[in-house]
Amino acid sequence: MSMKFLNRRRVVVLAAALACLMPGLSLAQAKLKVAGIYTVPFEQQWAGRLHTALKAAEARGEIEYKASENVSNADYERVMREYATGGSVLIVGEAFAVEAAARKVAKDFPKVNFLMGSSGKPQAPNFSVFDNYIQEPAYLSGMIAGGVTKSHKIGMVGGFPIPEVNRLMNAFMAGAKEVDPKVEFSVSFINSWFDPPKAKEAAFAMIDKGADVMYAERFGVSDAAKEKGKLAIGNVINTQAQYPDTVVASALWKMEPSIDRAIKLVKEGKFAAEDYAQYSMMKYKGSELAPLGTFEKKIPADVVAKVRAKEKAILDGKFSVKVDDSQPKSSAK
């Protein structure tokens, strides 16, 4: 038997041993197998943030990423199990409407790591939770809204009145009131995560009643504002490029700090059940107020100065935005 053959055989045996020790790693590329499962399209704001962060890790060559969009709640558990049995070592998604099923899958696959959007607590040993704790930039965007409204009426269209939506709306409202104590709010929920036509109709109704600034928690609201010549404040993503004369500011969510941390811990074999909430906050660069862009010179200078001062106070730990998960109410007459 030649030395060359023995060496080759030794490499194959070593590679096989590594594969046993490190499941989910590709022998050729040594990339983690990561799966994303979303109940909405990739383009939807919330899921889009996760998808973007995971695609960035894929582009860096760190992971092998597969994802499923528009997965129904009824089908969610099946898809989770398919990825878990298919070699994925990290599964990212949303457990909000499928908490019991998602946690059951995690129990059944203790060697697979889960990072799931959830209102619940982490579940040892392998189920970590996260949420869009971007109430800080939401407060700042509210200050801007309070500074640009002329009618003192702001319309707000949300998906569902759940904590993840409520806390951002309440923070936005508090920020607006700081700058304009007279401001009134119209609040409506469309009971859908992705129904732009329904959101647009709800926005039209508020504009017809005098709202001149719209809080666009859902897609469709900025379209209504644009058609009626009103202003909008974005949420989770920055759509000013699509609406340069409409979207004044946006509270941005960045999932990169959370996703990158999870990937690092999985690689090190140190992933554990924990709450990733803090990594969505400004301190960890998990959220920020978007650049004002086309509205940089259109917002009153004194308002911008107040916003920048508040932004600094938040980052310095001198101002804390209250987390209020209660359902916001309309105050407009």
Description:
This protein is of the alpha/beta class and 333 residues long. It has 2 domains: 26-130, Response regulator (Rossmann fold), CATH 3.40.50.2300; 135-252 and 287-315, Response regulator (Rossmann fold, 3-Layer(aba) Sandwich), CATH 3.40.50.2300. Helices cover 41% and strands 17% of the residues. The protein contains 10 helices and 11 strands. The protein has helices at 3-21, 45-59, 73-85, 99-108, 135-148, 163-179, 196-208, 221-228, 256-268, 301-315; strands at 32-37, 63-68, 90-94, 113-117, 127-130, 153-158, 184-189, 213-216, 231-236, 247-253, 287-289. The strands form 2 sheets. Strands 7-6-8-9-10-11 form a 6-stranded mixed β-sheet, with helices on both faces. A 5-stranded parallel β-sheet has the order 2-1-3-4-5, sandwiched between helices. Residues 1-21 and 23-29 have low confidence and may be disordered.
**What is the H level of CATH, i.e. the homologous superfamily of the largest domain?**
Response regulator
Low-confidence regions = 1-21, 23-29
Radius of gyration: 23 Å
Q: Could you give the distance between the termini?
A: 91 Å
Report the structural category. Answer: alpha/beta
CATH architecture of the largest domain: 3-Layer(aba) Sandwich
Write down the overall geometry: globular
Number of domains: 2
* Element pattern in H and E: HEHEHEHEEHEHEHEHEEHEH
What is the level 1 CATH name of the largest domain? Alpha Beta
pLDDT average, as an integer?
A: 91
Please give the largest β-sheet. 6 strands, mixed
| Percent range for β-strand residues | 15-25%
Lateral strand order in the biggest sheet: 7-6-8-9-10-11
